[in-house]
Amino acid sequence: MAKLTVEDLPLEGKKVLMRVDFNVPIKDGVVGDDNRIVAALPTIKYVIDHGGRAILFSHLGRIKKEEDKPGLSLRPVAERLSNLLNKPVTFVPVTEGKQLEDAIDNMKNGDVLLVQNTRYEDVKDGEYVKRESGNDPELGKYWASLGDVFVNDAFGTAHRKHASNVGIATNMPGKAAAGYLMEKEIKFLGDAVDNPERPFVAILGGAKVSDKIGVIDNLLDKADKIIIGGGMAYTFYAAKGIKVGNSLVEKDKIDVAKQILDKAGDKLVLPIDNVVADKFNNDADTKIVEGDIDDGWMALDIGPKSVEEFKNVLKDAKTVVWNGPMGVFEMPNFAKGTLEIGKFLGTLTDATTIVGGGDSTAAVKELGVADKLTHISTGGGASLTYLEGNELPGIAAISDK
Ligand code: AMP
Questions:
Q1: Which of 1, 11, 257, 279 is most buried, judged by most C-beta within 10 A?
Q2: Strand runs (DSSP E) across 318-379, as ranges?
């Protein structure tokens, strides 16, 4: 990798500023799914095992007014992290000032400290000033002044330019490194997009074409096949003159879909048949139809022939990237297409299989096949930006080797 990694940094006795992604669900002061905390442990442990003093920064949720703050404190995360590390974690309930500076000065080698939610800086004296989210230059400089080196392990925020990732890194030239999680994401997504073992098949789904046009554009030049499922498939149907009934269609994107189809030739694989419903409801009447969808019916999942066709395209793949569900998988009666594809990916043991995005990740976890896949990206938005071929500011700001 062309960027510095945590193993390139001096750590013994150093104040190691670390940007992690602890943006986890919290209910009634208790952390729910702690996957993101667990994912950050290898880098944190490496730092403290090598005598570093780990000073952790993360955002949590969105803060737009003072009242948002109490419910978005990182204190419960400090408790969970302490349990996971089996050692005390000092929580500092502020993001700047003497209390924070003193707490850092009091740290010993191997200690861990968690700073309050970086987005507390977005609201000052009741005003929405976005110091963190807007990468206020003074804030990045101040946080950088608190440490000796910087480790960015928050891939999930890498597509954003915040003071706590880009700001700190740009103020620590030559001393900003990627953590293990960041390194892993860059390796798998980077190799898949820029240097894939072929055939390389992308599976794109989800509601909207508009969200994925950049990805399709970029992957058309790189992938051998692009499978399209989910709501976005029906804008392509409309572009091909296939009747869509009441299915989800983005009318203003039909022309773009036509252009993509012209450019893609047989690279783009659309569903052959669909599960259509008479209303947007799990208890709707349903049937399976090939091709044209009549008025009064909407496609909410891909049909069994589509599943077979998609499996056929996938079976010889050596690299697969999947983002977005094949149907309205939140409703059990329309989850089958998504689950079948997830299950099949789990059988492709010779291929590098990568899943990004919350919904597809939820599907592979629900199926219990997550551990059979090569890589589950921790960042939905960040992985999409990567797949679009765009630079991620959080990664770009990390020092070159
Ligand atoms: P995205 O956030 O773009 O990945 O889209 C995910 C959402 O797309 C999920 O909430 C799905 O329910 C929705 N979705 C998938 N297929 C369809 C469909 N055929 N019609 C309507 N919504 C869909």
A1: 257
A2: 319-323, 352-356, 375-376
